[in-house]
Design a protein that fits this description.
By secondary structure, this protein is α/β, with parallel strands linked by helices. The protein is built from 9 helices and 12 strands. 39% of the residues are buried. Its EC number is 1.17.1.8.
Length: 247
């Protein structure tokens, strides 16, 4: 199996490359802003797609449209670990999934994948008029987006359980009184914290907290490689990490 890495010079991309080699798979090369012939790093997504069975993409939302077109044309499977897409980028991903298998994950950690499932179940079982929902996430000080993609994924699953759209109930500004049925988000940025997420549900008489803490960024790389191995050979379509654990 030939695995390419888009965003190979980033922290997570470099770890993904290490995990591909550790798994005794073929690292076909990488995609970055600057080429490096010795390391088989290119700037053209079509070149990487042409020599890969699957690409793990941990680059940036800005590269999404070009990557989507190149990977679809090359019939190369696509594992996406990037978040923060705009409407045009979302459409490019959906369009590519009609031609190739695409797996999207806000977080590749197995434990977090299980937490998403539990969040959906709790949303379905606990009444919105009795339990306030808050999602707290903490990351390293260099992280640009807030709330994190993982926090939003937790919110999406919880909202799905409540049968509401997250966009209709999300609150990220906590300067005023919370609205009834709102799903609140709080973000902290400090030091080099890898990633911590908690879903906190509070009624007048009890509190439930679901938490996940990543100690090592390598857990995401290992999950991404697992996803890549699973995705190759699948029919065109849009997949997520939960399907790997259901297989």
């Amino acid at each position: 199996m030939r695995i390419g890495i888009a965003g190979i010079t980033g922290r997570l991309g470099a770890l993904c490359a290490e995990e591909v080699v550790a798994a005794q798979l073929h690292l076909s090369g990488g995609l970055a802003r600057k080429p490096d012939a010795l390391r088989h790093i290119v700037t053209d997504p079509a070149r990487l797609a042409g020599c890969s069975d699957v690409v793990i993409d941990v680059s940036s939302p800005e590269a999404t449209c070009a990557n989507a077109e190149a990977f679809a044309q090359a019939r190369c499977a696509w594992v996406i670990g990037t978040t923060g897409f705009n409407a045009e980028q979302e459409e490019a991903i959906i369009r590519a999934s009609t031609q190739i298998p695409v797996l999207r994950a806000a977080n590749f950690a197995p434990g977090l994948t299980m937490l998403l499932d539990l969040a959906r179940q709790l949303g379905a079982k606990l009444p919105a008029d009795e339990y306030d929902a808050e999602i707290l996430e903490t990351h390293h000080r260099q992280k640009r987006d807030a709330p994190s993609g993982t926090a939003l994924a937790i919110g999406e699953q919880f909202a799905e359980g409540r049968k509401v759209a997250l966009a209709d109930v999300i609150e990220t500004d906590r300067s005023g009184l919370r609205s009834d049925g709102a799903i609140g988000f709080a973000s902290l940025r400090a030091g080099q914290i890898v990633g911590e997420h908690s879903l906190i549900l509070t009624s007048g008489t009890e509190q439930i907290t679901l938490s996940h803490r990543a100690f090592d960024r390598r857990v995401f790389a290992q999950g991404a490689v697992k996803a890549a191995r699973w995705l190759v050979g699948k029919p065109a379509g849009l997949y997520d990490m939960t399907e790997i654990f259901e297989a």
